[in-house]
Amino acid sequence: QLQLVESGGGLVQAGGSLRLSCAASGRIYAMGWFRQVPGKEREFVAAISWSGQSTKYADSVKGRFTISRDNAKNIVYLQMNSLKPEDTAVYYCASGNFFSVSIPVVDGWGQGTQVTVSS
């Protein structure tokens, strides 16, 4: 059964950096990161194909966030630089289909990790 566990969240000042990790068990394919704040819908952040050849980012994080993966360890990363207070959210990793589709198709979610960016 698919299991995803996020780590690396925390408190950081605006302009700082964090790297989130998602450790997966079971078979995974493309991976993505999403985020959610209280009272808001969960939103797409970034995705990476199984091979790592293709990546996709939300406009709000382009140029600041980088998604990568280590298939040998079954880990996907989200490097977050130049963080802004509006990046504050619970970040979730997910396995699914995020390419060649108009809407993401998620097979499983992690439990989430809190990222808080202070001004």
Summarize the structure.
This protein has 119 residues and is mainly β.
Q: Can you tell me about this structure?
A:
It is a single chain. With 119 residues, the protein is an all-beta fold. The protein contains no helices and eleven strands. Strands 2, 4, 5, 6, 9, 10 and 11 form a seven-stranded mixed beta sheet that branches. A four-stranded antiparallel beta sheet has the order 1-3-8-7, with no helix packed on it.
Keywords:
four-stranded antiparallel beta sheet, mainly beta, seven-stranded mixed beta sheet, 11 strands, 0% helix, 119 residues, globular
Distance between the termini: 40 Å
Strand/helix succession:
EEEEEEEEEEE
Largest sheet: 7 strands, mixed
Could you give the count of β-strands?
A: 11
- Distinct helical segment count: 0
Structural class: mainly beta
Helix content: under 10%
Shape designation:
globular
Topology:
Layout: E1 3-7, E2 10-13, E3 18-25, E4 30-36, E5 43-48, E6 55-57, E7 65-70, E8 75-80, E9 89-97, E10 105-109, E11 113-118
Parallel strand pairs: 2-11
Antiparallel strand pairs: 1-3, 3-8, 4-5, 4-9, 5-6, 7-8, 9-10, 9-11
